[in-house]
Amino acid sequence: MGGTVDGLTARHAGVVVAAVAGASTEIQGSGSYGAGTLFEIGSVTKVFTALTLARLVVAGTAGLDEPLAALLPEGTRVPSRDGAEIKLRHLAGHTSGLPRLPKGMLLEALLRPSKPDPYAHCTAGFLLDGLSRTRLGATPGRRFRYSNLGAGLLGLALAHRSGTDYETLVTREICAPLGMADTGIADRQGRLVQGHDRRKRPVAPWHLADLAGAGGLRSTAADLVTFVRAQLAPEPGGLADAIRLSHEVEHRASPFSWVHLGWMGLRSHPKQGGGLLIWHNGRIGGFSSFVGFNPEKEVAVIILSDTHRSVDTPGLDLIRRLESLR
């Protein structure tokens, strides 16, 4: 694993890498970084949002096939297509037909790609007003179309149904039961490390306001090891039923790839070993992340970086090396 850390350090200001193989765990970081270093995890947040949905479904307070409109404030206009409504499972699996970004953000993103904190204005009012004017690009449930807007709306809707805010809901349903004390949105102790752009220049943290369910969480390698261990071996009486549900729901994107509730799934071509990978990545502001695991081999890899440069390839390479040793 040291080679992975060294290779990443050449292109990133700082990184932490965690490897899980059976009962063994190893965590290494560059410089002063380690298991407890706090990073923005970007879109890895979506897995937490989807698992929160699964938790509420198991508890009977939400339904996978419940319409999004039923969880939003009365009078909210939610688009439909071909007579099909957006359901909660569509939001968690990126099959809602919603665009990638909220209404009004695409042009701004194109004109000002380096704008600091571009989602900070995404309040519930802004998001729901834009939703009412949004046209779906596909019939809900028909095809995979990755959407930050969809994931953010899922987090917003679940929080509204639960009568609380997104961070409190995720803490209650996932982080507290698993003992993940360092995972959340607020950086109350000022521990978040400095983020950097691709040229290793410092950039300010991002705040996703009410779109937090799409990418607003911060976490550590130690907490994420706890999270993936729960995915590899759900313990009875804990989050087991919700985790199993999140893995069972599946929408095929291609012969070799699919999407679960939150997670992406991939099986390599038989000529490449046919290995299974359940994964998600994240890139936000000055950070990038990768979390992946193979339940068949009981291996997992987590990479957290304080630089806006992809860590997917090193993550994939390391997990394949771990698989070859099992």
TrEMBL record:
Domain Beta-lactamase-related positions: 10-310
Pfam families listed in its UniProt record: Beta-lactamase
Source organism of this protein record: Nonomuraea solani
Protein name in the entry: CubicO group peptidase, beta-lactamase class C family
Gene3D superfamilies xref list: DD-peptidase/beta-lactamase superfamily
